[in-house]
Design goal:
By secondary structure, the protein is an alpha+beta fold. The protein contains 3 helices and 4 strands; from the N terminus they run βαββαβα. The chain has a single domain, classed as Alpha-Beta Plaits (2-Layer Sandwich), CATH 3.30.70.20. The strands form 2 sheets. It has a two-stranded antiparallel sheet. A hairpin with a 4-residue loop joins strand 2 and strand 3. The longest helix is centred in the C-terminal third of the chain and has 9 residues. The two termini are 16 Å apart. Bound molecules: iron/sulfur cluster.
Length: 75
C-alpha cells in the first residue's frame, strides 16, 4: 500500500522535500509517488495545501485512476 497523488496536484508544494525515502518525483503535470518506495508515513499528505494526496485506501472515487497513474510513472 502507498499514498497517491491525484490530479489535484498544483506542483507547488513541498511533498517531495518532506518524504523521508525520496519516493516522490516530479512529472509533466503533477508529482507522483513510487508505490514500491512509499512507507506510508503520511508526511506528504499533511504538507499538501491542495489536499491532493490520499492514502491508497482513501482515494475518492473520481480520482481512482491516480492509483494506476502513480505506479505507471515508475514502471
Ligand atoms: Fe513519502 Fe511518506 Fe508520502 Fe509515502 S507517505 S510518499 S513515504 S512522505
Amino acid at each position: 500500500m502507498a499514498y497517491v497523488i491525484t490530479s489535484l496536484c498544483k506542483m507547488e508544494a513541498k511533498c517531495a522535500e518532506v518524504c523521508p525515502v525520496e519516493a516522490i518525483s516530479k512529472g509533466e503535470t503533477q508529482y507522483y509517488i513510487n508505490p514500491d518506495e512509499c512507507i506510508e508515513c503520511g508526511s506528504c499528505e499533511a504538507e499538501c495545501p491542495h489536499e491532493a494526496i490520499f492514502h491508497e485506501d482513501d482515494v475518492p472515487a473520481e480520482y481512482q485512476a491516480a492509483i494506476a497513474e502513480n505506479a505507471a510513472f515508475y514502471a
